[in-house]
Write a structure and sequence with these properties.
This protein is about 55% helix and about 20% strand. It is of the alpha+beta class. The chain is globular, with a radius of gyration of 18 Å. The protein starts with a strand and ends with a helix.
Amino acid sequence: MTQYVKIPKERVGVIIGPKGETKKLIEDKTACQLEIDSESGKIDITCEEDPLKEFRVLETIKAIGRGFSPEKALELLNDEMLMLEVIDLSDVATTPKELQRIKGRIIGRNGRTRELAETLINVKISVYGKTVSVLGHPEQNTIIRTAIRMLLDGATHGAVYKFLEKKHQELLQSQLDSIDFY
């Protein structure tokens, strides 16, 4: 079976990588074939043996297409619980100026908001084009989605930071609770 995905043309070179290294790395690691059309941004993914691998490769390619570095996106191939979530901002921002404002709120001054969210919740965030993308485990992605929704709804950065701090403590506690001390 073959899956295909279309990514922004300016991200095709990132997927190919210098001298084709990134494409080759993905193919070698997964035993899948990538057929890349540089003109349209369409990528065909064929994995003869494992349909689940095909899905993971598709997610990896989407992540690179949404602005993540290949190094960050390739983590999707190593951790089966890691998920890509793409949040479309175009339904919230109706003008280019509004989109810039919203992206600015998510990134924060000097990248502080994004950096704090990534550090506290242990995710990776990419703000690219008309989307915000998150790489994390399902529970982490839910927290970040809520924080982004708060920012989109006009919450202050302070309130969002407080929310993220609280969720960070809850995540730490749930990790402690899951450790068996026998």
